C-alpha cells in the first residue's frame, strides 16, 4: 500500500508535509551535500527584507534546557541579492521553494510580495508578521487581528503566488488572528514563530543576548505550539503548518493530530541536518504501519474530551 | 565538503591544565585542514540540544585511509561536561570539517600564541607546517600555572621553543601572553616571525593583533562565538567587523587575518 503524503497549499502541491523552517536552513545550498531535497516537501528561506540587514550584535544565541533562545535580528541578504545570488540554486532543487519575507509597513509587505511572487522559481510566500527580535517590522502586525488582516490583504492583492502567513505565539487568542488572516485571503497559516523569552547571567546581571529579549525554539516549545495549532485549526478551514520544536516523525504525527496539514523542521536542522528527510521517511512508515492511505485521516484526528 | 558521521569515542584523556583530549575511533573521513572545526554531539536526546564546535586538535591518517580525529576541550558548561565525562565507546555525531583553516606561514619562522584552551588547534597546525628549515614557537598563557594545557605531545616540532606566561607569575613570564608576545617581538625586532597565529579569548586576540600590527607582523586569529549550526544558516556566530560588515565565524572563519576584524587605527 502506498500512502498519499501530498499536501495542497493554495495552488501548490507539496510531495509530503515536511518543510524546513525559515532561519534554520539558510538558502538551501548550504545543505546540498547532506539533504536529499527530493525527499522533503519544500524549503523555506531565511526571511527576506526590502534591504539587506546586518542583524543584532553578539551574543545572538543562548541555549536553554531543550531549547534555543535567539535574537538574530533578521540578518539577511535583502531582496536584490536574493534574486541575484540565491535564487538560481533554489530554482534547481527538486522540492517546493517558499520564500519568507517581512517589511516595516503594510505597503512594504505588498511591494515585496509582488516582487518575490513574480520571480520564477518561487513557489509560495510566507509572510513573517511575528519576529520578536527587531524593533520595527514584524511582530506588531501579528498581535492584532485587524493589522494582521491588513498585511495579509495587501500581500494577497499584490500576488497570485500561494500565500502563507506566519503567526506569533504571543497572543491571547490565536484563533482570532488565524481567522482574520484566513478571511483576508491567506492560503495557509504557519503556527507559530519563536516564543518570546529571556535568559540572564546571574553573575554579571546582563541578559544572555545583546538584544535583551529573544525567541525560544526547539523541543521546549513544542507542547505550547501543539495547543496553538489545535486552536488555530478549530478557528479556520485553511491548512495549518506547524512550526515549533518538531524533531522526529512522532512529533510530525502529533502536530497533524492537533490539526496541522504540514510541519516545519526548524531548530532540529542544527542538531541533525538530515532531520527533515528522516521525518518524512518516518511519517511514511507510520502511515503504512497504521493503514493510513491519506493524511486527511490524521489531520485534526485528536480525540478531544 | 562537510559530512555528518557517527563515530565511536575511543578515549578521553587528561590533557593537562584542566583540559581533556577526546580521541575518536578511526573512520572514513575527509582529512581536515588545521584550524577547521567540527560540530560534535553525544548520543543524548534533547538536552543539551545543540552540537558544540571544536577545532580539530590533531588528526592522523591510519590504515585503510581512515582518519582519526582528536579534540581538546575544557569543561565550561553542560555540553562540554557531558562530552568530557563520556565513556569510551559512546557514539558521537560529528559534522565537518567546517570553515576556513590556517594557511602556511609565508616564511621560515612562525609563532603560535595560545590563551589557555586556545592551544586546541595548534598541535594540528604544528604537524602541518613543521619543516626542517622552519622555526616554530609556542607562547602559551593562563591565569595560573595549573591552567596551562599540556604541549608535550607536539613539543618536539617546536624548534623555536615554548614560553609560558601566567598572570599570577606562578610559572614562566609574569603577565599575560600578549605582554609576553610584545616583549618577544621587541627582542626579535631584527628577525621577526613571518607569521603569528593566535587563538584565545576575543579580547586577548584583539590585543595580540594590535601588538603584531605595531611590529609589522602578519597575524591570523581563530575566532569563536556561540554556534548553532556550523553551516552559516543559523546566523548565531555572526560578528561585526570594524568596517560595519558581518563576518560569519563558521563559514568566513574561524581563521582569518586579524585585520579583517579589527581596525588599524591609522587606516581610513
Description:
- The complex is a heterodimer of chains A (305) and B (268).
- In chain A, 31% of the residues lie in helices and 18% in strands.
- Chain A has helices at 78-92, 106-117, 145-158, 174-183, 222-235, 249-258, 268-271, 275-289; strands at 7-9, 12-14, 18-20, 42-44, 61-64, 67-70, 96-101, 124-128, 163-167, 188-191, 195-197, 214-217, 240-243, 262-265.
- Chain B has helices at residues 78-84, 122-129, 152-155, 177-187, 202-215, 249-252, 258-261, and strands at 3-16, 19-24, 37-41, 52-55, 58-61, 67-74, 91-98, 109-115, 135-142, 161-166, 173-174, 195-199, 219-222, 238-240, 246-248, 255-257.
- In chain B, a hairpin with a 5-residue loop joins strand 5 and strand 6.
- Chain B contains seven helices and 16 strands.
- Chain B is an alpha/beta fold and 268 residues long.
- In chain B, the strands form three sheets. In chain B, strands 4-3-7-1-2-6-5 form a seven-stranded antiparallel sheet. In chain B, strands 11-10-9-8-12-13-16 form a seven-stranded mixed sheet.
- The chains are: A alpha/beta (305), B alpha/beta (268).
- Chain A binds chain B through residues 23-26, 30-31, 33-34, 46, 54-55, 57-63, 65-68, 70, 72, 75, 218-220, 247, 267, 269-274, and chain B through 1-4, 41, 46-51, 79, 93, 95, 225-229, 231-240, 244-246.
List keywords for this structure.
heterodimer; A: 305 residues; alpha/beta; TIM Barrel; eight-stranded parallel β-barrel; four-stranded antiparallel β-sheet; 8 helices; 14 strands; 31% helix; 18% strand; globular; B: 268 residues; Elongation Factor Tu (Ef-tu), domain 3; Rossmann fold; seven-stranded antiparallel β-sheet; seven-stranded mixed β-sheet
Amino acid at each position: 500500500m502506498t500512502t498519499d503524503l501530498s499536501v495542497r497549499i493554495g495552488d501548490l502541491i507539496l510531495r509530503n508535509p515536511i518543510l524546513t523552517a525559515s532561519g534554520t536552513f539558510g538558502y538551501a545550498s548550504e545543505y546540498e551535500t547532506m539533504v536529499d531535497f527530493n525527499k522533503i516537501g519544500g524549503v523555506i528561506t531565511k526571511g527576506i527584507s526590502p534591504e539587506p540587514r546586518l542583524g543584532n550584535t553578539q551574543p545572538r544565541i543562548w541555549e536553554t534546557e531543550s531549547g534555543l533562545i535567539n535574537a538574530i535580528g533578521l540578518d539577511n541578504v535583502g531582496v536584490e541579492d536574493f534574486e541575484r545570488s540565491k535564487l538560481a540554486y533554489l530554482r534547481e532543487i527538486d522540492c517546493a521553494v517558499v520564500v519568507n519575507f517581512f517589511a516595516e509597513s503594510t505597503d512594504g509587505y505588498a511591494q515585496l510580495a509582488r516582487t518575490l511572487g513574480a520571480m520564477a522559481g518561487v513557489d509560495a510566500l510566507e509572510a513573517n508578521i511575528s519576529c520578536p527580535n527587531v524593533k520595527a517590522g514584524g511582530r506588531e502586525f501579528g498581535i492584532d487581528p485587524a493589522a494582521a488582516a491588513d498585511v495579509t490583504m495587501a500581500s494577497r492583492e499584490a500576488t497570485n503566488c500561494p500565500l502563507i502567513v506566519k503567526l506569533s505565539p504571543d497572543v491571547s487568542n490565536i484563533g482570532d488572528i488565524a481567522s482574520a488572516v484566513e478571511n483576508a485571503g491567506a492560503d495557509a497559516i504557519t503556527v507559530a514563530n519563536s516564543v518570546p523569552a529571556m535568559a540572564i547571567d546571574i553573575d554579571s546581571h546582563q541578559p544572555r543576548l545583546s538584544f535583551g529579549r529573544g525567541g525560544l525554539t526547539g523541543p521546549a516549545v513544542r507542547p505550547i505550539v501543539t495547543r496553538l495549532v489545535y486552536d488555530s485549526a478549530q478557528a479556520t478551514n485553511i491548512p495549518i503548518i506547524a512550526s515549533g520544536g518538531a524533531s522526529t516523525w512522532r512529533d510530525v504525527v502529533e502536530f497533524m493530530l492537533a490539526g496541522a496539514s504540514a510541519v516545519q523542521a526548524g531548530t532540529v536542522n542544527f542538531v541533525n541536518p538530515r532531520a527533515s528527510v528522516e521525518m518524512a521517511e518516518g511519517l511514511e512508515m507510520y502511515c503504512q504501519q497504521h493503514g493510513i492511505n491519506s493524511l486527511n485521516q490524521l489531520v485534526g484526528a485528536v480525540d478531544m474530551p | 565538503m562537510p559530512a555528518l558521521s557517527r563515530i565511536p569515542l575511543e578515549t578521553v584523556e587528561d590533557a593537562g591544565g584542566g583540559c581533556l583530549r577526546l580521541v575518536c575511533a578511526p573512520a572514513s573521513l575527509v582529512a581536515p585542514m588545521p584550524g577547521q572545526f567540527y560540530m560534535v554531539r553525544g548520543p543524548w536526546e534533547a538536552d543539551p540540544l545543540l552540537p558544540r564546535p571544536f577545532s580539530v586538535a590533531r588528526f592522523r591518517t591510519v590504515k585503510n585511509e581512515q582518519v582519526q580525529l582528536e579534540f581538546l576541550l575544557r569543561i565550561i558548561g553542560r555540553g562540554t561536561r557531558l562530552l568530557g565525562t563520556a565513556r569510551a565507546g559512546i557514539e558521537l555525531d560529528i559534522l565537518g570539517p567546517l570553515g576556513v583553516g590556517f594557511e602556511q606561514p609565508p616564511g621560515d619562522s612562525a609563532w603560535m600564541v595560545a590563551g589557555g584552551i586556545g592551544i586546541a588547534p595548534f598541535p594540528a597546525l604544528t604537524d602541518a607546517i613543521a619543516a626542517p628549515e622552519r622555526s616554530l614557537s609556542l607562547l602559551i598563557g593562563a591565569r595560573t600555572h595549573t591552567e596551562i594545557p599540556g604541549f608535550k605531545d607536539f613539543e618536539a616540532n617546536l624548534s623555536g621553543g615554548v614560553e609560558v606566561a601566567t598572570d599570577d607569575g606562578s610559572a614562566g613570564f609574569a603577565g599575560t601572553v600578549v605582554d609576553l608576545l610584545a616583549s618577544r617581538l621587541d627582542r626579535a625586532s631584527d628577525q621577526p616571525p613571518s607569521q603569528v597565529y593566535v587563538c584565545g579569548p576575543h579580547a586577548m586576540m584583539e590585543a595580540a593583533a594590535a601588538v603584531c600590527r605595531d611590529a609589522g607582523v602578519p597575524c591570523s586569529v581563530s575566532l569563536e562565538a556561540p554556534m548553532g549550526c556550523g553551516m552559516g544558516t543559523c546566523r548565531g556566530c555572526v560578528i561585526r567587523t570594524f568596517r560595519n560588515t558581518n563576518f560569519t565565524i563558521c563559514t568566513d572563519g574561524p581563521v582569518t587575518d586579524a585585520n579583517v576584524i579589527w581596525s588599524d587605527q591609522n587606516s581610513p
